Records
---
Amino acid sequence: MALDADKILSFLFQLLVGIQLIAVAVLYVNVLPFPDPPPQKISNLTGLPTWNADSPHFTAINETVGVVKYVAAFITGVLAIICVYIKVHKKPPAQTPVDEPPIGNQPAAEEIIWTKLLFNTIITGYIIVTFIALITGAIFELGKLWSAFGIYHNVLELCLAAALLQRGTFNYIIGLIVIVVYSISAVAITSQLEWYWDVTFFKFQGKIIYFVIISIYY
């Protein structure tokens, strides 16, 4: 009996949501009772507080969070590969793109090529910006100063979500306004929050974009 690809994808998405909720529950149980955040570590380079703390109990919590995070990321990656495999085999045969008649001296345009180029450009930019965020994090250490660099990692994720939602096409003016407002707001709010709320807010707003991308893709 042939399996319905849409039902399989729906099941995998529900399974993924369930796994993430279990991961949140495991983290919640392991960090109770919530301790008061210890003093922040000071960066040797900038002399500014970082998002690190010298505390055995806090270190143990971070290790637990790290293990659960990587396990959840591995499972998510495996499910994503399965979904890509299903979508590729479900995809109808590609049709030859039809050239649009040229207007004036403008060359013919093929929307499918432009769409792929846009998406690939965003992916390339995302990889570059992520690398820059890692390098700046290693130099300055994660903190409010680093958030000014790390936010561009989230900005490119927002562009990926827009590309998936709009099938690779979106209004550049509206997109630019959203990017500027989002990046300035996120960094400004992070800079005004006290430790440990600053790092919590910055990481949480980034995770929301991850979930949006996964929801759009599935």
Note: Residues 125-218 form one domain.
---
Amino acid sequence: MIHLKINYEASLAILEREVEGELLSIVAVAAAAAVAAAAVAESVAVAVAVAVAVAVAVAVAVAVAVSVTVSVAVTVAAATAAEAAAAAVSVALSEATAAAAVAAAVAVAVAVAVAVAVAVAVAVAVALSVAAAAAALAAAVAAAVAVAAAAAVAAAVAAAVAVSAAAAAVAVAVAVRVAEAVAVAAFCFFVLEVFVV
């Protein structure tokens, strides 16, 4: 009877150590899951920051390109107008010599005005095309940023689900071990009671 009591107490001590070990393993798994979730969140934040920086850089580059295009168009128009003015002055000076020269000067001035108008129209069309391309590029960058953010969130959710599943599996294993320990303890107690009686 004394031997059975000693075995019963030893079994209880062993079960307690096993339960403590399982609880420690659950705590370690939970800590690892928290660290993994923090790492995933940090990676997502870094990816979003990089995507936003790229979008801002693209927008700045597009704005600079549009500004340069407009400046070039204005410069070309000004140069053409100066040439037209010089031609008009030259023609005006020669108008005093003959009426035919006056008609030719008028024709030249009209041709120069038409050329200036065409140049301005082409410059405006180029600027509008550049602006449309910039808007399309900005929209594509925004869509890429949204897709990257959605993929990062999906990865974080998947990691959290995997960690939860692992923790649930460990908890089930611990519950099974505790149930086995309780059954063994009950059996030992029953045997001890039978022999004591």
Note: DSSP finds two helices and no strands in the chain.
---
Amino acid sequence: MPGKFSVYTEELRSASQRLSSHAPDATQIPSDLKTEARQADQANRGFMTGEAGESLADEVAKAMEHYKEHIEFEVDAIKDCAEDWDDADKATESAIDAIAAELSSFRVPRIAGGA
């Protein structure tokens, strides 16, 4: 017999909201890093460290943009799962209600001469 499990769709929606709050943070990281790299480059003219810092900042910006897109994709997927579970629950409830309605009018046949 398969195990029983429950899905709490409101918790899924809550998790997707919490996750979506991280997306803007992901894009803020490279902005701060770029500013600091630019300042380091200006303070150390002629040295490769400033350029390397700016190059690193650019790579981090690309990575964080990809990360933000990933977060947004996962947020949508989690929301879709919650909706799908709610739809499945409603469909099942409707099917069970229909069976219950049919059973409520069912009468046990009586056998003539029986007890």
Note: The chain has a mean pLDDT of 86.
---
Amino acid sequence: MACCTTVAAALPRFDAPSTEPALRVPLPAQLSAVPNSYQLVRLMEQWAERFGYYDGRIDLSADISAFSTPECALLPHAPLWGNKPGRETLIGAQAVRKRLKDLHSVFTIVRTDMHLTLRPDGRAFCLYYKRDANLCCATIDSAKNLFVGETEPDGHGGLKVSRVDEWAATDPSDGLAVLIKACGWPAATQPFAPYHGFGAV
């Protein structure tokens, strides 16, 4: 199941006005030339803030419309989330937040080995990381996965996240192959770069 749609090359840029806040973590140098790179990373940071990636706290009453579309949803591809191939279903963004809040009430979620790349057309981002769910001193569950965020123009000169797909990947090199083969990203996509953001420790 493809996770993205081919986008025409001639797209407007949505670059950061000088009044925008600084990013929490500097963008890897090799990705700075990608159109909309600031906007994409800022969207990632806003997602992480509202989905508890930094501190495990999720306020379900908080508005997420500043960075996501009303229809925004996540699709975890098998075997992630215990899904079987061909039986995956989209989960609305607010439902994902509720599930994460429930998980954080029991487990400590730790993300490590974070890497980042951006689609060359400047309309999608992808993170690779290892995720552990810890209870006291024991790791109860572990996974290595891609977090692929698609965007669309918000009508006001910016972008919003419209869909997220999660895919299993053994390492960043395997993740790049998944992006190209399963998601239709161009072969010219930059390799993943180390990135200590998005709640990584």
Note: The beta strands are 68-76, 91-92, 108-118, 124-135, 138-153, 159-168, 193-194.
